[in-house]
Predict the structure.
Amino acid sequence: MSTGERRGCSVLGIVALVVAGGIGFFIWQTFFTVKPFDGPLKITHDLSQGCSDARRYFPSAAAYSGSAPHPIAIFRDGDGSGGQEDEVVPSGLADDSYQTTDPGKVQLIACLGGASNGTRIGDCDFSGSDTLPLYRGEYDAVLYEAKTGKKVAEAHLEGSESKSDCPYSLYTQGSPDLHTSPDSVAIQRAFGPYVESAH
């Protein structure tokens, strides 16, 4: 192979590396980076996008700084697959000022993943002969600063041990597993230190 041919192969190799790097960067930037939320925050449920697959952060939200309390919004994966997030009312934290109806004042977003099966508590009975097992939910959670999207902490929460978590009604086709939600004690244990103590 002549010197010119070697030089041509080297140039093609460099071009291929640059193109591959550019494509890789585009994919990483598009799918794996947290992006700012576009538009105004109107309700606290807007913050659920901080937990979605295409995670957002909220530049207009309050910074996680200063003295406590640090208002929090908690969201639970509604179907266990990273889909629609259900808002959880974080009862049980010592100071009720942790919660606000103004989404711009929220400093922390807690994202609870889909529930996995803990211990079986009993069964939920529905109209007719439909019965489904009820399990104590096991949840992994990540706590983020709303303003920047930076991870603050990780936590594990257990659902309550109460059979009262059976839903009033449910479409039972496919025999889904039912899970209890975290109670006030679990919420306090997981998030209280970040909401109620000085940062």
About this structure: The CA atoms of residues 67 and 198 lie 5 Å apart.
